[in-house]
Structure formats: C-alpha cells, structure tokens
Amino acid sequence: MTAKEKRALEINACKVRMGVIEGTYAAKSGHPGGSLSSADLFTYLYFQELNIDPAQPDKPDRDRFVLSKGHCAPGLYAALALRGFFPWEDLKTLRHIGSHLQGHPNMRSTPGVDMSTGSLGQGVSAACGMALAAKLQGSPCRVYTLLGDGEIEEGQVWEAFMFAHHYKLDNLRVIIDNNGLQIDGPVEQVMSSYPILDKLAAFGFETVEIDGHDFDALEGAFAQAETVKGKPFAILMKTTKGKGVSFMEDQVGWHGKAPNQEQYEIAMAELKARLAELEAD
Amino acid sequence: MADVKKIATRMGYGAALKELGALHDNIVVFDADLAGSTQTATFGKAFPGRHFNCGIAEGNMMAVAAGAAAMGMVAFASSFAMFAAGRAYEQVRNSIGYTQLNVKIGASHGGISVGEDGASHQCLEDYALMRSIPGMVVMSPADEVEARAMVKAAYEHQGPVYMRFGRSPVPVFHDEAAFRFEIGKGEVMREGTDIAIIANGLLVAEAVEAGELLAAQGISARIINMATVKPLDEALVLKAAEECGRILTCEEHSVIGGLGDAVCSLLSEKRPTPVRRIGTPDVFGHSGPAAELLRQFGLCGPCIAQAALDFVRG
After folding, report:
1. At which of B130, B147, B171 does a domain end?
2. In sequence order, which residues have a C-beta less than 8 Å from that of residue A89 and are 6 or more positions away?
C-alpha cells in the first residue's frame, strides 16, 4: 500500500478507537481492552480487505466477518459505523434498551453483522459453516473470523480447527488476537493456550505471526492467505490490549470495564491529539 | 396392531432427507459420527457432496450448521437426542435459536427406548430443553409416515426446528396417501368423551391400543396424536378439555418440562381441567430391552389404559 493509503488507515483506526471509547462510555459497560487491541484489524478489514458494500449489507457474494470474540463488539460497531453501515451517533446507544447495538453482535439487529456471537468458541464454527457453504455455492466469498487468545481455551475452537482442515477450507482466514490477557489475568497464568502457532500448525493450518498494529504486516498476511490452497490459513496477531489509550494499555483491568467521565476525557484527548498529529502531516 | 409393519421413525428421517435432496440443491446435512444410526447416511449415499461428517464434535456441528444456514442453505444437523439437545444445548440456543437460522435438528434415539445403552444415552429431557428456546419448533412423529411428512414440513418452515426420532421400530398406522401433516396441529386418532389421552412419539400407537382396551370396558377415550410439542395445538387441547373433562398426557420423556407440562401450562391458565401425566418420573433410566423398559416405566397400551381407568373412576 502507498504511504497515503497507510496514513488513511491509521486515521481511521484512531477514529475506530474513539468510537470504542464513545460506545463503552455511553454504555457504562462493555469491553474496551480487546476492542482496542483489534481496532487496527477491524479498520484494515473494513477499509481495505473485505469485499463489502454498506449500501447493500446483505449482498450475497460479499466476504463475511465473524467476530468470534463477540465481546469486542464496540470495536466492530465503530468500524461498521465509520464505514457507513449505520450512523456514527448510534455508537452512543450501545447496550441501551431499544438500541440495535446489543452488548454482543446480533445479526438480526445490526446492518453489517454477519453472525450473532458472544458465547465464546461458537463464531469460529459458524465461520467454518459459512466457508463450507460458500464452496458448495461456488461463491467467491471469503470468510474471516477473529478469536481471542483466551477464547481458544474453549474446546469447540479446536473442533472447528479440525473441521476447517478436514474440509480444506482455504477460503477461511482465522485471526487470533494475542494480546496476552483475559478477564482473570495473563493467559499463561489463567490457562495457557501457548504455543498457539505450533498448535495451529499441528491442526493443519498455514500460519503467520505478525504485529497486529502494523498495516503493512496485515496486508502481507492477507496477501499470503490468497496464495494458500487446500488448507485453512491463520494469522497470529501480536497486539497490546487497550492499544492507543495510555492508561488502558496492557492492563487486565480494562478487559471489561467502561471509562468514567474523567477517564473518558483523558482517553478522548489522547486520541484526538493522535488524530490531529496523523492528519497534520 | 400386531400384524402392522413396524419401522423406526429415524428411517423416515433418512428417507425424507433423500427425497428432499433430489428436489432441492440448498439442503446440506451434517452428522457427528452417527450417520448410520441417525440415517443421514441415506442422504449421504445419494448426495455425498452435500453430506458432511463433523466427527464426534456436536457443539461444533451445530454452529457449523448455523453458519451454512447464514449463507442461505437449509442445514440439517443430526446426532442422538442426548447430544443434539443435551451436549450441544448452548450452541443450539445461541447459534441457532437466537439467530433464527434455518437449521433443522434431526435427533434420533430419543427416550427410554434407546434401551440397552442405558441412562447416559436415554434422553428424557430434550423437549424441556428445546421448548425453552424462543422460536424453536419441537416435534416428534408417531410413525414412519408421519416422520417423512414432518421432515418435509420442517424443510418448508422458516427457522429452527427440533425433531426427535426413535431408535426402535414402531407400527406404521398412517395411510400415506391420505395423511397430511401440519406443524402445530394435533391429530384426533379416535373420538371419545370420557377422557382425552394426548400422546406423541411411539406412545401414540400405545394410546390407540389403550383406547381400544378402554372401549371394551365401556369408557370412551379420545386419542390425540400431538406430534408438535411446540407450538402446541391449543385449540385442540382446549376442545378436548371442554368435551372430555379429563386429560391424560403420555410421552417418552420426563414428566418435567415436556408435553404434559405444556398441556398443564395451557389448561391452568385458560381452562383449569384435571390432568395426569404419564412419562418417566424424576429419575434416570437404566439398561434393558426397549419393550421391557417401556412397560417398566408404564409407557405401554395396557399401562395407559389402567391409568385412564383409575383417572375416570377416580
């Protein structure tokens, strides 16, 4: 990608992060930590990678995205709003009664959400079903799914990985957000899911490990995915939980907690400064 | 019904899937290493490109089926009732129920008549579990003809469906040419006014036998096949309550949460009527030949007749 394209992505990612803060602040709950660690991925997918059209959210041959780690809905919603699936102002209704923005993604209420998720480990299975169906239908649709490094402690995830390899789902892209933290603490202390890459390889995936905050690396990984035939592809994305908001970075306490007014103002000020910096040069 | 041919309802499931597969390209069938038992292998043999074994991983299978349905396919997912409704309950609830996706769960080997495999495999809770999911249609056919018609109706229905089939051969008493199946509609097998016996699954044939035994004793029993547990045919139940004054429910399921509870819930609110429930009590089953287990748990024609007699004579 050109420097200009990369800068546009960085600007959008900063806005997505602002959307995460706006949403969780308005909701007084939600999951900012993982939403922020995945914000660059959401931005890359919705502004660069996915074949989607906000004017036709149900376009049959569109690419699908399944947020298997459904609690990071604030990040997905911010990316969808920024991309034009629904008004940005809707983010402030997150988790409110009557809002189409449910605490976890609901395909029946939110334009652009391809699968209802939230109960960990199920989204990746649904993504496998989508990839299989796309093959049966002769559709060019590619299916992307994002999991957490804590989520992969669910046994069902490995059932799904077995399935993806067995049925040679080369139209599936599994992305794991390795921010190293889950609700109760560091992944290696709660229940180590490591070594993740080795396990994925043993389950028959072509794998790559990248910095999940580097757009060039994301571009390279998804380009590599296009070349893999006859087996599924997985990206292990090293990230920082809470990325972009100084006091949230790498803090387990920000997994599922909303900022109070003071914290909201500090976070927004940081992100606005970052945005101004990006837009300046 | 001694001279009537006997076929397990699961055979009807496999046969109907094969018929539907020939008519519709959008059907995809999933199984979890029980294709020979659930009978989805019948479909798989005819349409190998649309039959997918998920291995012994029922939770994954249910969500995979949901994903396929999200792409516009009509997905059938099969295992034993114990694993389809029990083990994969939460996947069914969240990935199929909450999403309202077009997944049809074909659960075989339901009830105590699984027999020798014992309590671990005798699912007596599936109606209760599946009824509690908003929007889920819950059904069980009485014979092989009804099973085939039910599977076709499930295909046409928009949204999630749970169907329970049996392992053991049961009498085929429906006339295929004349039979019409409709989701949510019960079927009066015999008219009567002293008591209404509402049954489903393999207990319909037993209830019909009970009706004959009762008639010999001068008791006029209305026999109803309530293949759809949810949505319940409320009009038919209320009419039976009004005209017969007593209801006896019969199901191969725990008395907790199944057909009997559905009937009681309706009647307690809309037309309080004495009801007795035949089903398994609040206990686990155990190993044994199906026919002997059914008798032991009071799930047989003469047992139903005796319960009805006690009820009527108070």
Report:
1. B171
2. none
Asked if residue B167 and residue B191 are part of one domain, the reply reads no
Tell me the per-residue pLDDT of B27-79, one tens digit each, with 9 for 90 and over. Answer: 999 999 999 999 999 999 999 999 999 999 999 999 999 999 999 999 999 99
Residues in chain B within 8 Å Cβ distance of A129: 63-71, 75
Cα distance between residue B119 and residue B143, in whole Å: 24
B75 shares its domain with B194: no
From the candidates B58, B146, B251, B252, which is the catalytic residue?
B58
ipTM above 0.90, yes or no: yes
- Could you give all domains of chain A from N- to C-terminal order, each with its CATH number? 3-280 (3.40.50.970)
> Phi and psi dihedrals of B309, rounded to 5?
-60, -45
Distance from CA of B56 to the nearest CA of A (A): 9
Total domains in chain B come to 2
* Residues B259, B208: Cα–Cα separation, whole Å: 17
pLDDT value of residue A281 = 74
Q: Is residue B155 in a domain? A: yes
The arithmetic mean of pLDDT across residues A202-219, rounded, is 98
Is A129 within 8 Å of B90 when comparing Cβ atoms?
no
Question: Does residue B137 sit in helix, strand or coil?
Answer: strand
Q: Minimal CA–CA distance to B273: which of B247, B291, B239?
A: B247
Both B103 and B155 in one domain: the answer is yes
Tell me the residues of A at the B interface, defined by beta carbons under 8 Å apart.
60, 64, 66, 106-108, 114-116, 118-119, 121-123, 125-134, 136-137, 139, 141, 155-156, 159-160, 162-163, 166-167
Interval A79-89: pLDDT, tens: 999 999 999 99
Short-list A243, A145, A234, CA closest to A196: A234
A168's torsion region: left (phi>0), alpha (psi -120 to 50) or beta? left
Domain interval for residue B78: 7-171
